[in-house]
Specification:
alpha/beta; 3-stranded mixed sheet
C-alpha cells in the first residue's frame, strides 16, 4: 500500500517485530497464576516413598494366617486354640521394634527370669541394621522375618502388625501384646506387671458364658493441637470417607493390646488402605502415622474396649525433632524410677522410654534393689 508515494508495509512489520518481546513477556506474566492453579491438578504431588508391593503381598499372606489361627475367639485356632488356652495360663507377648542392638536385653532378662511359662518374646529388627544378637536366652531365636522401616512412613505400622501377627500364630495363650522399642525399660517386676494386666476387670460382653472382655492399654486422644495438620499430612481429602476428621485420633506409638484387638489390627483392610498412603513431602513434619492408626482403629471399632491411656511413660518436656527426652546415666536414680512409675490413671506405668545405651549399667545396679522391688 502506498500513501503519497510511501510504502507502509515495512514500517508495519518493524512495529510488529518491536512489539513481539513485550507481548511475549506479558503473556508469560499472565500465565504464572494459571500455572499455580493448574499445576497441582495436573502434576502428581511429591510424596514420601510408599510401601513396596511385594511387602504388601507378603504381609497380606501373613495376616490371613494370623486371622485363621485366631478363629474361634480370644483363644485362637478354633477348638484347638480354646483347649490349649484352657490348659495354659495367659501369657504376655513382648514385641520389640528395633533398628539397633538390643542393649537392654540383660535388664529384660532379669525381668523375665523365673517366669518362662508366662511370656513370649518377638523381635522385628530392621534388615538394614547389623545387629549383635543378645546372648540372653529369652531373646535367642525370637527374631521374626522383617522388612525395612522408615520414620514418617507407614512402614512402622506394618512392622507392628507383623509382630502382632507372628505372636498370634505362634501361641494361642498370648493374651496381651506389649509393643516396645529398643530404648524401653521395665519399671516394675514381671510379677507386678503380669498381675496388673490380668487383674483388670475388663468390659462386659455378650459372650454366652458371661465372661468379660480384656481391655487394651493404649493412649487415645482427640486433643492434640496439631491434629488437623496430622490429618491432612497425606492430602486434604484422602482420609475420607472412611476416617472423617472428627473420628481421627492420636496416641502413643507403644501400647499393650488385648488379643481380640490384636486380631482386629491384622484383619483390618478398610482403614489400612488410608493410613498406608505416603505423606506429602511438603507435610512430612506432621507425618506420624504410627501414632494415629492404632488409636483411630480401636476407637472407631471398639470405643469402650480400651483404657485410653498407655502404660509406657515418655518425657516430652524437651523433645527435639519429634523425639522425646533421652535419659543419660547421670539421671538414673531410685527417685527417677519412682517418678516414672507415677500415672494419672489408676495404673502405675509399667515401662518407660527413652534411655541411652550407656544407661544399662546404672539400671542394672538398681534392678534388684529398686526396679524389681515393688
Amino acid at each position: 500500500m502506498k500513501v503519497f508515494g510511501r510504502n507502509l508495509e515495512p514500517d508495519h512489520e518493524r512495529a510488529m517485530i518491536s512489539w513481539s518481546p513485550f507481548l511475549i513477556a506479558l503473556l508469560l506474566l499472565m500465565s504464572i497464576p494459571v500455572v499455580f492453579v493448574l499445576a497441582p491438578r495436573i502434576l502428581p504431588p511429591k510424596t514420601m516413598p510408599s510401601i513396596p508391593d511385594m511387602d504388601e503381598v507378603d504381609d497380606l499372606a501373613l495376616f490371613r494366617r494370623a486371622t485363621l489361627a485366631s478363629a474361634g475367639g480370644e483363644g485362637g485356632r478354633g477348638g484347638a486354640g480354646i483347649r490349649r488356652r484352657a490348659l495354659s495360663p495367659p501369657k504376655i507377648a513382648f514385641l520389640f521394634l528395633t533398628n539397633f542392638d538390643l542393649v537392654f536385653a540383660p535388664l529384660w532378662e532379669r525381668f523375665f527370669h523365673g517366669h518362662e511359662r508366662l511370656f513370649n518374646v518377638y523381635v522385628h529388627a530392621d534388615p538394614s541394621a547389623e545387629l549383635v544378637l543378645p546372648p540372653t536366652p529369652s531373646f535367642r531365636g525370637r527374631f521374626i522375618p522383617a522388612k525395612a522401616t522408615q520414620r514418617s512412613s507407614p512402614t512402622l505400622i506394618s512392622a507392628a502388625r507383623r509382630l502382632l501377627a507372628a505372636a498370634l500364630i505362634d501361641d494361642p495363650a498370648n493374651a496381651f501384646f506389649a509393643l516396645l522399642s529398643q530404648s524401653c525399660v521395665p519399671l516394675h517386676s514381671f510379677r507386678f506387671a503380669y498381675h496388673a494386666l490380668l487383674a483388670d476387670p475388663g468390659t462386659p460382653s455378650n459372650l454366652p458364658d458371661g465372661r468379660r472382655r480384656r481391655r487394651s492399654y493404649i493412649e487415645i486422644s482427640s486433643k492434640d493441637p496439631w491434629m488437623w495438620m496430622r490429618y491432612v499430612a497425606r492430602g486434604d481429602d484422602v482420609m475420607m470417607p472412611e476416617v472423617p476428621f472428627e473420628r481421627f485420633r492420636a496416641g502413643s506409638q507403644f501400647f499393650v493390646l488385648a488379643r481380640r484387638h490384636a486380631v482386629m489390627v491384622v484383619r483390618d483392610r478398610r482403614f489400612w488402605k488410608k493410613f498406608k498412603m505416603p505423606c506429602l513431602k511438603s507435610r512430612v513434619d506432621s507425618c506420624y502415622p504410627e501414632e494415629h492408626y492404632f488409636p483411630t482403629l480401636l476407637d472407631m471399632q471398639d470405643p469402650a474396649g480400651s483404657t485410653r491411656y498407655t502404660l509406657t511413660r515418655v518425657n516430652w518436656t524437651d523433645s527435639v525433632g519429634g523425639h522425646p527426652h533421652m535419659y543419660q546415666p547421670p539421671e538414673i536414680s531410685a527417685n527417677l524410677i519412682k517418678e516414672l512409675r507415677k500415672s494419672n490413671s489408676t495404673y502405675s506405668h509399667l515401662f518407660a522410654r527413652k534411655f541411652s545405651a550407656e544407661c544399662l549399667d546404672p539400671l542394672l545396679k538398681l534392678a534388684d534393689s529398686v526396679i524389681f522391688q515393688d
